[in-house]
Amino acid sequence: MINVTEMLKDSAERYPDKVAFADPEKSVTFGELYDLTGRIATMLLKGEASAPFEAESGAGFYMEKSVDAVCAMLGVVRAGGFYSFIDVRQPTERAHNVISVLQPSVIITDAENKEALKRVITAEENASAARALSDRFLGSKYTKELIPQVIMISDLIEIAGKCDADDGLLEMAKEMYYDRMPLYVNFTSGSTGTPKGVAVGHSSVIEFINEFTKVFGIESSDVLANQAPFDFDVSVKDIYSGLLTGARVQLIPRDYFSNPTRLMDYLADSGVTTLIWAVSAMCFVSIMNGLEYRVPDRIRRIMFSGEVMPVKHLNKWQSFLPDASYVNLYGPTEITCNCTYFILDRKFENDETIPAGIPFANEKVFLLDEKDELVMEADKEGEICVGGSCLALGYYRNKEKTDEVFVQNPLNDRFYERIYRTGDLGRYDTDGNLIYTSRKDFQVKHMGQRIELGEIEAAAMTLDGVDRACCIYDAKKKKLLLFYTGDREKSEVTEVLQQKLPQYMVPQKTVQLDEMPLNKNGKIDRNRLREL
User: Fold this and answer.
1) Of 77, 141, 450, 516, most Cβ neighbours within 10 A?
2) pTM of the model
3) Nearest CA-CA partner of 472 in 451, 503, 491, 492
4) What is the CATH number of the domain that holds 494?
């Protein structure tokens, strides 16, 4: 298997009438999906919806996830291209910068986001680039004469339904496939202010998903509740686990995560069996008492990633779903979803850290110290490094940044061995499990001592009445600042931390918030906290 569309073809042959993807408004079977994606790919290759689509061209998606979006993005892939979802809720300037980096052949949008897309394309920032993009992309309705570069999803689906797939053309596109072709580009933040596009190839996803579904026993009878937006790589596990195994992927609209009763009804009524969620989504349910309202009792598999899971929130899930299996997943976007996993085999106390665990097959995970020497002994910290077929292709149109972190393994002077330096710090426990400790850039020097901000956060999270906590360092004023949500009084939080931590680690200021600011991937937004 060299292309993910082979997963779709195989499942369409095995389960033609089984629902593949569903949202609250629409569903599509595997047979219908395979047929429609062939029609969409034909339109793109013939230039009937845009300029003729070439191999390895990119398609931008400026819209929320939906069944129609899945059909269109897999149509792009069958045409030999790759897709990139652009977060519609991010600031206009940032979205404009993403498009400037991506330079997609087409952008697919919907009526709800059409006007916002025009503002993004014509952003005042970088006016010359904006004018060039405007010239290419301002078409807004399908007509052959205009050959617009912006395609309305409704037009694409409607017209594809009326045309026939060209098997000869699709076969020619298939002959161009190779396993390192880019499949998607997901944008993360960049230190220079320019977003970084992580390009991931077919072989990495195929390799990972085959192992992922095997380890956790995902099969055709499962219903996967897709929480993550499609610009976040947690969604990759849902989409391609479904395509490979024949499981149904139930898409959860983003706004359901502001309405816990609606969310829990949706999970229960959809017969969901598997959650592969960001930690923040699980914390939302526990903080908002969603499980007290209704328990989706068919859930038997719960996996979480993205941040350190606060144990007390996990314990709440376990109290309502004690028979489900729970898995902590670790890995940055650059290594295709996850590189390690830990299946929880016991109950953890609030002050314990859940291990990141052991590597997936064919993934090499190891620690390097500050001298680039291998760390093997327990409890000694080092930078987490990863090698293997899981690695991303690199950062799209950013060779300098790619070369900075995708490097030759310094332990290997015998042959070329590319690894990714994650910038995360970790250690091993006495059982050989990897423990994530913090980011390298979350380590600070304060009062002559090296401090892990994550240790302060973990201490705060053990307190009853503290829901989430985040610590930042004001280097200019040389102060530790703790932000938290919950109903515990600030003075009580400080008093308990004085008992739990050395004096030099006790925050100089504690700030109680109504809610924690989150970035587009659902992680705590530290930059917003710094602004506060």
Assistant:
1) 77
2) 0.85
3) 451
4) 3.30.300.30
Distance from chain centroid for Cα 114: 24
Same domain, 382 and 474: no
| Cβ atoms 224, 242 nearer than 8 A | yes
H-state helical runs in 202-278: 202-216, 234-245, 260-269
What's the N-to-C CA distance of the chain in angstroms? 50
Distance CA 408, CA 55 (A): 30
The answer to whether 283 touches 515, Cβ cutoff 8 Å, is: no
Which tokens in the block code for residue 339? 């590189």
Res 147: pLDDT: 30
3-state helix, strand, coil in the chain (%, to 5): 35, 25, 40
Angle at 376 between CA 351 and CA 336, to 5 degrees: 75
340-343 and 325-330 as β-strands: parallel, antiparallel, unpaired?
antiparallel
pLDDT band of residue 15 (cuts 50, 70, 90) is very high
Of 99, 80, 105, whose CA–CA distance to 202 is shortest? 80
Give the dihedral sign, CA 397/400/402/403: positive
Residue 133, SS3 per DSSP? helix
Domain membership flag for residue 476:
yes
Number of domains in the chain: 3
Question: 84: helix, coil or strand?
Answer: strand
State whether 457 and 391 are in the same domain.
no
Look-up: residue for tokens 């617009």?
A: 148
The overall average pLDDT reported for the chain is 90
Of 120, 89, 103, the closest CA to residue 229 belongs to 89
Q: Are 9 and 209 in contact (CB under 8 A)?
A: no
In 288-388, where does DSSP find H-type helix? 290-293, 311-320
Q: What's the gap between Cα 171 and its chain centre?
A: 32
* Of the candidates 464, 489, 45, 19, the residue with the CA atom closest to the CA atom of residue 246: 19
- Among the residue ranges 80-84, 189-193, 218-222, the one predicted with the least confidence is 189-193
Q: Look at residue 243 and tell me if it is in a domain.
A: no
Angle at the Cα of 387 from the Cα atoms of 386 and 390, rounded to 5 degrees: 100
Q: Are 281 and 309 in contact (CB under 8 A)?
A: no
**Cβ density class 289-298: b for 16+ within 10 Å, e for less:** ebbeebebeb
- Report the C-alpha gap between 145 and 256 in whole angstroms: 41
Which residues, in sequence order, are CB contacts of 61 under 8 Å at separation 6+? 69, 72, 73, 83, 84, 85, 86, 107, 108, 109, 230
Query: Residue 123: what pLDDT?
Result: 66
C-beta separation of 226 from 236 below 8 A: no
Q: Does position 133 have pLDDT exceeding 70, yes or no?
A: no
The residue segments making up the domain with residue 430 are 252-437
Residue with tokens 């015998």: 414
d(CA 134, CA 295): 49
Q: What angle do CA 16, 18, 19 make, to 5 degrees?
A: 120
